[in-house]
Amino acid sequence: LDEFHKATNEFSNAILEILEFCPEHVYFILCTTEPQKVIATIRGQRAQRFSVERLPKQVMIGFLKRITKKEDVELPDNFYQEIAEVADGSPRAALNILDKIIDIEDDEEAFNAISSANFDEMEVKKLIDYLMSQGKKSWKEVSKIVKNLDLTGSKPEEIRVAIARYFGTVLLNRGDPWSHRVMAMFASEPWFYTGREKLLDTLWELCK
Length: 208
Known about the structure:
This is Putative DNA polymerase. This protein is mainly α and 208 residues long. The chain has 3 domains: 4-43, no CATH class; 57-117, Helicase, Ruva Protein, domain 3, CATH 1.10.8; 121-206. It has 12 helices and no strands. It is globular and about 60 Å long. The two termini are 35 Å apart.
């Protein structure tokens, strides 16, 4: 059951007995990015919790090499390194990038496509530029930019990673509190299931 934190209390209470007395061969998998919102009688007594972590870089590289081997495709080693770096532990993001570059014959063009994978929309760059600008941020201005963003599928997660990486670099070079605040708010758990709403919530907090 996906996004189980959105289940109503009535539904959650209704399945308590089903979860407790289900047949031995039946397993219920309750998926959520916000486990604290699952009622305590399920979370603490009737379920075992497994956290899904980001893949380490070397594991991601091995994963990508298995994919390209099955597809009978050869890529330079630095391509795998760069995809793993840009994907930031997300197999889905890594596969999306691989799909975009796998048929590009020119190595330089393909590598540049990997490096810019999270900046493939001008509106994302506009959002970063606005967050970098001086002074208090205006929700009115932020919302104008966000309305032009593609927030379907895994796009919000790609935007999150792009902004976190960008401001992480700025923090290393400048060491200013604002860059740290932005980086910290975007360097969170993946947003695959709450992407659009989580992006809006994070930007709203930055405008306060």
